[in-house]
Amino acid sequence: MDALPDLHTHSTASDGTLPPRALVRRAAVAGVRVLALTDHDTTAGLAEAVEAARWVGVDLVPGVEISVSWGGRTIHVLGLRFDPEDEGFQAGLERLRAYRRWRAEEIGRRLRKAGIEGAHEGAVELSGGQLIGRTHFARFLVGRGLARDVRGVFKHFLVKGKPGHVASDWATLEDAVGWIRAAGGQAVLAHPARYRFTRSKRLRLIGELKELGGSGSGIEVVSGSHSRDDALVFARHARESGLLASAGSDYHGPENPWVDLGRLPALPEGCVPIWASWTPPPLLASA
Q: What tens digit of pLDDT does each residue of 175-194 get?
């Protein structure tokens, strides 16, 4: 039996640990037939993923996870089914990648001041020379024995008030959703339960997304980081706001066995799946 579509995954093109080809093959083995590769602020892994998807019979959705500054926090917006060749879209992503390069250098400088040498170089090596994220610094510091796990690194080194913290300066919500829509795609609020907003602030965020993204926009109801109760809460938000419901594991690699491909629970009743209106050939690998 085929698994639920998985519309949120990462490869070595950003902070995942499997190359795009290996990610697609693993998804196929797990029974996933509709897959989105949604690397952070880049579509660099799509070409390899498309080639692999055609071989194993997976429909690959072009995707990306865009970093956004909203309400004093960093949130993430997924773009799905856009044209990867759209120049304005790619220019927006390049602006974010340029900031990421500067941020990585600055994190390295700040950690060096705190007595930790070689952090930037280590993160670059772990990233394979591609997009460098805080997770690469975290893996480096775990490897140096400075923390037990990645979560511990963030807590002690990379959050506000800690030596490696750098304030974020990402895209605005208006810009991110605008890039996605201009490229013909759909915008989806990623893993909303992770944002510790008040109810009123959460409703404002959902309302702004709907206003900017229109009727085709969505919210990630089922996520690898959501509990069953979280899914029920955001299913209700999706129904009440008229947003489509999406599902994604936020898979980063086999090192995190509690989040795997092909294991997503069904969407709660009453949700309209974002993929319900997709008509053949809706996906990049089928084009």
A: 999 999 999 999 999 999 99
Burial pattern 94-120, b for ≥16 Cβ within 10 A else e, equals: eebbebbeebbeebbebbeeeebeebb
Pairwise CA distance, residues 18 & 15, whole Å: 9
b/e code 51-64 from CB counts within 10 Å (16+ = b): ebbeeeebbbbbbb
CA torsion angle for 168, 191, 181, 39 (degrees, to 10)? 70
**Mean pLDDT within 148-168:** 91
The sign of the CA dihedral 119, 46, 83, 240 is negative
Return the bridge partners of 78, or none.
65, 188
Rounded Cα distance, 2 and 286, in Å: 18
pLDDT at 283: 47
Distance from C-alpha of 177 to C-alpha of 133, rounded to nearest angstrom: 22
